[in-house]
Each structure stands twice: as C-alpha cells, then as structure tokens.
Amino acid sequence: MTVIEAHGLRKTFGKTIALDGVDLRVEEGRILGLIGLNGAGKTTALNTILGLTQYQGELKVLGRNPWTERKQLMRDVCFIADVAVLPRWMRVSQALDYVAGVHPRFDCAKAEGFLAKTTIRRESKVRELSKGMVAQLHLALVMAIDAKLLVLDEPTLGLDILYRKQFYDSLLNDYYDRNRTIIVTTHQVEDVQHILTDLMFINRGRIVLSCSMEEYESRYQEVMVHPEQIGAARALKPLYERQALGRNIFLFDGVDHQQLAALGDARTPSIADLFIAVVGNHSGETQGAAR
Amino acid sequence: MNTQSNAMPNAPLEAQAVTNAAVAATRPLYWSIRRELWENRSLYIAPLTIASLFLVGFLISTIQQMPKMRATLVDPAQQRAAIHMPYDVAAFVLLLTAFFTGAFYCLDALYGERRDRSVLFWKSLPVSDLTAVLAKACIPLAVLPLFAFVVILATQFVIFLLSTAFALGNGFSAVALWAQLPLWKMWISLLCAIVASALWYAPIYGWLLLVSSFVRRGVFLSAVLPPFAIGVVEKIAFNTHYFADMMTFRLTGWYSQAFAPLAPGAASPADPLAQLTLGRFLSRPELWIGLAITVIFLALAVQLRRSREPI
C-alpha cells in the first residue's frame, strides 16, 4: 500500500519557493530518512504531509487529502514536530489522560509501560523534566498510538547521545513492526543510518536523491585510494573527492565494487559524506534560499 | 468497540451506534475544555480569591457598622437597601472579575500555544481546529459564567449566615432580616444577569480570541488599540461619537436592558424579579447582531488557527 504519494508538490512563501515540484512515493512499512540543510524544505514537506500547510500539486496521505481531511487523517498519523513541544504546564498524568481522552487509538497501558522504563514520574510537570525526558515522554505517548504513519521532525535535536540512542532504539524495537511507516528528519544522520530503509535528500525544495538503503549500499562506495592509483580513480568519474589525513578519498556512484577494491580500501560511505558529495557543492546558494 | 457491539442484542445496536457517535463527537470537546482548566488555573483561582477578600471586607465592615445601623435604619426602604447592598455588591464584583478573567484568558488562549510551540502537540492529535476554538470560546461563554454563578451563590450564602449571626448577636430579629431577603428570587435574577452578560459580551470574547489567533506580539495592544483608534478618528473627522457610544453600550447594555432602571435614590424593589425586563433584552437587535458577529469572529479564528504557524 502506498502511504504517501505526491506529484508536483509546490509551496511558496511570498517569493521564496519552499517546495519546487516534489514527487514522492512512500510505501507501507518503510523508514524514510529525509535529509537536508536548514531551509532546504524538509519541514515544509512534512507540514504539507501532516495537513499543517496548504500546497499546490497533488498529495495523498493514506489516500486522503491532508489539508481538507486533516482531522480524520490525524487518527492514523502521528507526529513529533521539533523537540520539547509538550506544554510545559502539563503533568505527565494529565498528558496521558488527555491523549487517552481525545485519541481513539491510544493505549494508555502501553504508554505507562514505556514510561515505567524511564525515570519519569506521573505527577511531574513537563517543565520539571529535562529535555531528554520530555522527548522520552513524547515518544511514549506517540508509540502508544496505533498509527499507520509516524512523522518525526528533528525529534532529538539538542539531546545528548545517550537519549538519542535510546530514542531510536525504542522506536525500532518497541514500535516499528514493518506495517508502520516512519518518516524522520534529522541533522544527526549517523544516529539514523542503521535504522533507515529508504533515504531521500532534499535541497532547495527539490528531491535530489532518493533510494532504498539496499540500493544505497550497492551503488555508493567510498574508497581511500592509494596515492599511485589517483589517476585511475579519477578516470572512473568519482562523485566527489576529498582529502583526509593526507589520503585522497573518492566517492563513487555505480562503479563495480571489485574494480574499486583494487584502488584502495573500499567501504559504504556514511550518509553525511554522501550528502556532502551530492548537495554540499551548492550549500552556499542553498542557505536561506528557501525555508 | 467491536466486542461490545457483538455482546449486545441486535435491537439496541443502532441506538448504541448513535450514542457512540455522539460520544465520539463530544469527547474531544470535553477533554479540550478540561485541558483549558488544567492550564488556566487563574480561571477559578481569581473568582475564589476575590470572593474570599470580599467576605473578609464584609466581616470587618459589619463589625464596625453594626452599632450605627441600629440607630439610623428606621425607614424600612433604607433598611432594605442596607441589607441588600452586600449581596448586590458581591454579585457585581464577582461578575466583573469573571469578565476580566475571561477577557485575559481569551487574549492568551490562541496566542500562548503558538508562542510556546505547544500548538504543534495539540495539532498532532485528532482534534479539529473548530473543536479547539469552540472549547476555548466555551470557557468565557459557559464555564466561567457557571462558575461565577456558583461562587456568587456561595458568597451570598456566607453573607446570609454571617448577617443572621450578627442580627441575633445584636438583638435584631432574624426573621425580620430574612423577610427582607427573598433568596430564591434573588438567585433567579442573578442567573438571568449572568446569562445576559455572557451573551452580551460574547462579541468581546470573540474579538479577543480572534486577535489572539493571529498577532505575533503585543496581544493586548492589538486588541484594544483598533477600537480606540476608530473612536478617536471618528471624533476628529466627524466630531461624532457613535462608535464610542456603541462600545459603551456593549459594556453596560446587558444591565440597562435586562433590568429596569431604578429611580435615582430609590431602593431596589422588594421583589427582585419585578426589576427583570428580559423581553426588552431579548428584543434588542444589538444582542442578536452581537451574537452573529461572535460567530464570524470565531469562524475567522478557526481559519487562522489552521494556517498560522508557531511564533
């Protein structure tokens, strides 16, 4: 089943183009990482999917128009937009009661089960919790909702590495079941690399790369080339070339792995390195070009 | 839900489905109102504080004035006025408190959630913008008036007990005192006053909610300056004051229309219900125009809550 389908999705704010004709298709059971610089259009893309902004073009989320059918959509879609947006005056017990009251698919016992694994007390107010604990609480609430699509927009920004790791671990172990679909954006791409099934780069309102992680691993190779092989490496038209610790590192797209192994130490590149290779050259123009 | 329906015999199935649908429709509203009360504790703290302060003041002034009263109040009308005064003042002060509490609540209701970005959390749940705005409008239009009514009732009852105790302690007849206080009728009259004022003030609350839904800063000034500016411009340009009169009537009209005016210096009538002029109040076009404007303001607020982003 297709969870999200977009054709020619456009969104402008005055003269700035935030989404410039995005085509998108996300199937059920995928964990999609949407990677982009600040202002590349990630949040705008997610906001259109969540029915928070109007848009031009075609967009169907779980078969619904997210802008006109937002209320119905929110029964099946859940999202964490930004860290620590839980109201600061709320008590943990009130948050549980409220979500149980308004959400027909919320399983309160499940949420309490998740909270039992943390140090969060039910009578605490959100303002008394650390930023990491607020993220834990929000995740506990969201994971107890039997939703078909979960959207996470920078859910771990500003959290320390322990909380970040716990966050994605529980997401993968306690929530993801191959029927649910997750979309996540983050700047800490190394945190999510191992959990994604699909990857998408967005730059200046356009999707500049879209592939599954299997495809990613077979297509992209990063080679630390022996000095005498540099000429041969360049002849294979690398995507990107950089220097680290006095060695030349080349990133190749779609070159035979055995051929690359002959040039030096080959491995799968990190998402961050591929991102820089694909997008980095234009970063100066991108910053501030869109929101 | 399925297991429940299966266990039921077939006949009430449809009825149950209808009930379920009704429950499903009102649950988000109910919980949204509850969460407003969790967040805004001033909604009930303010009236309770004012009521307690009033009672303390009443106690002190009664202790001081009791000996004087015995000497001066021989005229029955004057006596009645003196006995009624604390009840009327208590009701007036608490109604005013409810109005201000409601007004300041409205100013922050749709602004605060954007400022602290919690709107991103509220919007992640299946509660429509219409439900959210209606819940917020219910606070000054229904919850606060109801609460004010209960608090005024309680305050007046304490006044009643205290004055009875003082009357007995100072050799007055309690029965004579009670004869001056038709409590049930007073309370019906009070209920009318509360409903009338809530309906009459509805466009004010609607306007404050609307302002709160779109401004990025300076909510109070954004709400107060435009009407003030219109009045000033009208005065300068045409040397008239229709708009200012309209605003004054909006603030005081419910009382002047729902209650017959007293002759200057006259005491309130023995029967409080005799003063009620509900027919006149309900036939004022300003009431119905005001309610129509409220609906427009709230509809705009719903649209703006949909499209506005967190600040």
Structure explained in plain terms:
Chain A has 12 helices and 13 strands. With 291 residues, chain A is an alpha/beta fold. In chain A, the strands form 3 sheets. Chain A has a 6-stranded mixed beta sheet, sandwiched between helices. In chain A, helix 4 runs antiparallel to helix 5 (131-143). The longest helix of chain A is centred in the middle third of the chain and has 15 residues, at 161-175. The model of chain A is unreliable at 283-291 (pLDDT under 50). Chain B is 81% helix and 0% strand. Chain B is built from 12 helices and no strands. Chain B is globular. Chain A binds chain B through residues 50, 52-54, 70-72, 74-75, 78-82, 85-91, 94, 97-99, 101-104, 138, 142, and chain B through 24, 27-28, 30-32, 34-35, 38-39, 113, 116-118, 120-121, 123-128, 307, 309.
Strand content of chain A: 25-35%
Structural class determined from secondary elements of chain B:
mainly alpha
Round the mean pLDDT of chain A to the nearest integer and report it: 89
Low-confidence stretches of chain B: 1-9
Question: What fraction of residues of chain B sit in β-strands?
Answer: under 5%
Give the oligomer, counting copies of the same chain as homo and different chains as hetero: heterodimer
Q: Report the total helices of chain B.
A: 12
**Amino- and carboxy-terminal Cα gap of chain A:** 31 Å
Low-confidence residue ranges of chain A: 283-291
Could you tell me the number of beta strands of chain B?
0
**Tally of strands of chain A:** 13
Radius of gyration of chain A equals: 21 Å
What order do the SSEs of chain B take from the amino end to the carboxyl end, as H and E? HHHHHHHHHHHH
**SS-based structural class of chain A?**
alpha/beta
C-alpha geometry of chain A: globular
Major β-sheet of chain A, in short? 6 strands, mixed
Overall pLDDT metric of chain B: 87
Give the largest chain-chain interface (CB within 8 Å): A-B, 31 and 24 residues
General form of chain B? globular
* End-to-end CA span of chain B: 40 Å
Helicity level of chain B: over 70%
